[in-house]
């Protein structure tokens, strides 16, 4: 399957279990791997035959910068649902949500979740 990648998109959201996270907010990063057939777009060179990356970004931004959720698992699930529900050419997507500054003692680069969802047949 062909893939479109959007890497390290950065957003500011208010997701988390603790009141401080919901009040102060923090950065979140999102990577997407979108599975679709790009053969027609490759032949026609027409945007209508592919998926608009800008619209993918806007749908992702709306979720991450929208309603605060407790878990990044729920953020990832909502992103996948929005993308599969709004882009007919999309067969499946892998969504990775990174939280670089969770309130967990220790030294690490980030915590993250990765999910893979396919269009219901």
UniProtKB/TrEMBL annotation:
<comment type="function">
    <text>Catalyzes the conversion of 7,8-dihydroneopterin to 6-hydroxymethyl-7,8-dihydropterin.</text>
</comment>
<keyword id="KW-0456">Lyase</keyword>
<dbReference type="Pfam" id="PF02152">
    <property type="entry name" value="FolB"/>
</dbReference>
<comment type="similarity">
    <text>Belongs to the DHNA family.</text>
</comment>
<dbReference type="InterPro" id="IPR006156">
    <property type="entry name" value="Dihydroneopterin_aldolase"/>
</dbReference>
<keyword id="KW-0289">Folate biosynthesis</keyword>
<dbReference type="InterPro" id="IPR006157">
    <property type="entry name" value="FolB_dom"/>
</dbReference>
<dbReference type="InterPro" id="IPR043133">
    <property type="entry name" value="GTP-CH-I_C/QueF"/>
</dbReference>
<dbReference type="GO" id="GO:0004150">
    <property type="term" value="F:dihydroneopterin aldolase activity"/>
</dbReference>
<feature type="domain" description="Dihydroneopterin aldolase/epimerase">
    <location>
        <begin position="4"/>
        <end position="117"/>
    </location>
</feature>
<comment type="pathway">
    <text>Cofactor biosynthesis; tetrahydrofolate biosynthesis; 2-amino-4-hydroxy-6-hydroxymethyl-7,8-dihydropteridine diphosphate from 7,8-dihydroneopterin triphosphate: step 3/4.</text>
</comment>
<protein>
    <recommendedName>
        <fullName>7,8-dihydroneopterin aldolase</fullName>
        <ecNumber>4.1.2.25</ecNumber>
    </recommendedName>
</protein>
């Amino acid at each position: 399957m062909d893939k479109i990648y959007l890497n390290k998109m950065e957003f500011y959201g208010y997701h988390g279990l603790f009141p401080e996270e919901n009040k102060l907010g923090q950065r979140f990063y999102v990577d997407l791997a979108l599975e679709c057939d790009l053969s027609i777009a490759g032949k026609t060179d027409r945007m209508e035959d592919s998926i608009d990356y800008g619209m993918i970004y806007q749908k992702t931004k709306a979720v991450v910068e929208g309603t605060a959720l407790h878990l990044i698992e729920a953020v990832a699930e909502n992103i996948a649902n929005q993308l599969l529900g709004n882009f007919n050419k999309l067969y499946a997507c892998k969504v990775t949500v990174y939280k670089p500054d969770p309130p967990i003692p220790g030294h690490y680069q980030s915590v993250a979740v990765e999910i893979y969802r396919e269009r219901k047949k």
